[in-house]
Design goal:
The complex is a heterotrimer of chains A (663), B (327) and C (146). By secondary structure, chain A is of the alpha/beta class. Chain A contains 19 helices and 34 strands. Chain C has a single domain, classed as Lumazine/riboflavin synthase (Rossmann fold, 3-Layer(aba) Sandwich), CATH 3.40.50.960. The chains are: A alpha/beta (663), B alpha/beta (327), C alpha/beta (146). Chains in contact: A-B, A-C, B-C.
Amino acid sequence: MQRIGVFVCWCGSNIAATVDVKRVAETLGQEPGVVYSADYQYMCSENGQQLIKTAIKEHGLTGIVVCSCSPRMHEATFRKTAESAGLNPYMVEIANIREQVSWIHKDIEEATVKAIILGRTAIAKLLLNTPLTAGETGVTKRALVIGGGIAGIQTALDIAEAGYEVDIVEQRPTIGGRMAQLDKTFPTLDCAACILTPKMVDCAQNEKIDILSYSEVEEVKGFVGNFTVKIRKKARYIDEKKCTGCGICMSVCPSKKGLNEFNMNLNNRPAAYIPFAQAIPNVAVIDPEQCIKLKTGKCGLCSMKCEAKAIDYTQQDSFVERNYGAIVVATGFKIADLKYFNEYGYADNKDVITSLELERLMNAAGPTKGTLLRPSDNTHPHVITFIQCVGSRDISGCGKPYCSKICCMYTAKHAMLIREKYPDTEVHVFYIDVRTPGKNYDEFYRRAVEQYDVDYIKGMVGKVYNENGKLMVQGSDLLSNEQITIASDLVVLAAAIEPEPSVRKIATLLTTSIDTNNFLTEAHAKLRPVESPTAGIFLSGMCQGPKDIPETVSQASACAAKVIGLLAKDKLKCNPCVSISDDSMCIGCGTCANVCPYGAITYVDKEFRLGGGKTEVRRVASVNEAVCQGCGACTVACPSGAIDLKGFTTKQIMAEVEAVCKR
Amino acid sequence: MQRIENLMKAKAIELLENGTVNRVLGWTAGDFYYDNTPAIFNSKEEIEKSFVYNSFCGANLSKYLVKERKNEGKILVFLKPCDTYSFNQLVKEHRVNKDNIYIVGIECQGHLSIEAIKAKGIDGVVGLEENGEEVTVKSIYGDKTVVRGEVMLEKCLSCKSKKHVAYDELIIVNEMPEADSMKRFSKVAELEAMTADERFAFWKSELSKCIRCNACRNVCPACTCTKCVFDNPESGVDAKANADKFEEKLFHIIRSFHVTGRCTDCGECSRVCPQNIPLHLINRKYIKDINEFYGEYQAGADTESKAPLTAFTTSDIEPGSNLKEGK
Amino acid sequence: MQEINKEYQPLIVAFCCNWCSYAGADLAGSSRLSYPANVKIIRVPCSCRVNPMFILKAFQRGADGVIMCGCHPGDCHYTTGNYYARRRMTLLFDMLDYLGIEKERTRVEWVSAAEGVKFSNVMNEFAAKICELGENKRLEDLRCKE
């Protein structure tokens, strides 16, 4: 038989003004199973907690009910109190008599009666509580970072810095990501390569970091602290260990028609290539779609010329399987497809380009060696028009409902750089709003307008069309309320960004949630912004939402801090309020696993004694306590009622229902 | 019918003798001509002596395979088209091991209801002579010919399919009539069209007949739990009898909810109910709702598809949004 | 808020998920938004923990109305729990209606942790509706006294 103590809190006058706390304590003190009851001004205060501890010890209490504020407020507090007095923390129930009683009811009689019923309900539940102990699991002290852009690089470096091993899986042949494609970065105008490539080199040189480039995550098993990940290393037809990155294969390769992805397809590259000069790993890769040898069997020039004997046309995809304690998603973004935006003529006019293409056109290592030339005829453009919010903040369904966040700043940057380098140019920018929150950001934008005479026009563009070699940009100027047409040589679209499409598959593999825009959902938008709701999965960079480089790096480091916090633990404590299956009732039908959002349920064949020396082997459900988050979906799905949820058992909830219904 | 019985016996003996199976699940005669019951046959002699198949073999044999799973060796089972749906559902839920079962799908012209025959004033039935749509019932008081469609079991009148969805081989001699699976929802639709008060009155008179004999549960091929929630003191709804007036309703709501999306509409619950409660109308309501809300779904049609209650779409309808207010 | 008949106080059981709706009820409390005292809340981790048996049990024990509140579809703390709950309740409520139990006695509402006002409004409305309907006789007693 339980010995229950009831503690009624006044919460100053918050409760006591509307609820007759003395009467509540006295009435509940008479309930079967209750051996002690008390009321006190502030139960959560040090003195209040002391009162509880003393009572637990003096009266040998086996469980306590605290009638106070919401359990969301102080359940954890009172559990700790109970634990410090030697009681199992799960032998504590809270009756919420503040938010659900004193704060919403005015009539003292009515409120007091309700408080008593809620107290009785908590007692009814507590009578069925059993002490719960949190299970423990070990932690594999190694992290996986999916994506090798600036976010992944920063997270990996920080984790490695703390002394943990970390692997970067990058789907492209080199790490560096989008940032490597940028020319300059706002608001300081540093050259992107100058600040990024040292970090890439750090990654390559750090002995704690292993870079798996040209690789993809294939399969994920396990749970927080104990993931097993199968990684596909795509065949690059080059022996990574032998290749010295000399580039001879590139120069001898006769197939030069492959589109140069790094330069946003603005020029071509050979079939055997190194994406860019500072690539990490600095190892070539052969594009099987373009390689003459791989397609026809004839050629083999690169193999003949390669002094390191690194070329291997027979290479196949290979797989590695590794264990990790934590997984970071840093899959980044891409420019959204512009197919729904015919009005800007992107598909029809070579001189209508995206901002990322402009980055390559302005970059010294780009297709034009840094001279700004029109893609159509390689001439110097005089009038350049920028159009912002192309596909962002678009609720028509063609684009993205969100603000891509970085476009205002990079457009100001582009405008400024062009005016700086080519003072003979005329630069116009169409905008809906200019959004520049951030340190030194608005100053930066003002410099573009004031110092560099960039012409900002508030309004959207309706149409871009070609007239005698000029791009006619037709739009409205909302401030002067007139229709204008600007004859331009080059039109730059600030296209919306969207999450890298492969993130959807990764989210499925990781059983983590993703929103309608394909951004990964954080565990809490404000308080847990770098964790995913699935334990052990963390979010770094653009995969979680639009952000610029400074923000990405901050988030990447925050993410690393969370990973380090996890890896620093030797054991993980699990939530003890998890599902438990009763083997004697389970029929192994498989329904529970079908509704489990975490994949926490598997089935095992177990041998059971039947009596008389006979045994039978039956298929029964088995819950992985470290993975189960305690939602209870399985408990209702189970037709035989074999699976129950600790802390919220069917019997407990039934007892609560009966208690609240007692008039 | 006699011809089919002979073919079935021959097949059973053949499979027993060539070692394909070591036992046979079929029907044997009961105390009366019309109460054939499921039985296991272990030898040629047993088959010859007591194996029976006639139009009083409405019982669905698939559920008996659950118990047989514990025994060694392969078993031969005779399944009518509708029984194969139950079989598939059991495979899907890992309740039977397909590898140890040899299915012979058999022809079904619809089975007969002794209640319906008695209602025609025929008692003391001792035999049948079937000739297409005409059935001559032989009784100790003489012969009487009736139209088959007037004396069939409810589940056969509203037959959902004449297609075997699982079998190793088939014994079909005569052509089987086409089934119209949508027809079975007409009574449900009729009830839906009533006012809440009328529906309440209907179910009050039906469910208050329940004596809680558990026959519906015990025969149901979807009810294969080793311990039913109604027998489990931990469940909070356990009861051996309907102790208060609420409980017969509770029992049927919960029982039907437990088989929602798993019930193949085999109609066994109504067939065995000693009080003739139209229990199939409860299960069929769920089936009709599922079809309307979440797309056509026939439990047991396959062994892979996701059951409606273990699936969802983000745009599912909101609870109660389809219902009319008022009495 | 509608004035509620003093003599007849309907008993309403509200199942609230811990993460959204229970927090929404807390917010209603801290915003001092009142609703009838006979609305009694039972906390569950997720709406998908609500077994139809709980709802029937409440009716059996004399509840006049039962409401289930959960996170808005798409916002479930456990990602998909409320989607399963939504299907289960749709079918259960339909069945109760089919058996002739007034549809108004059952309800599902999605209440976020931010929707204190909604929580209070929903409870007031629901209680008013149940008040109109009166006592729940149908589920308490089927084999009615003739």
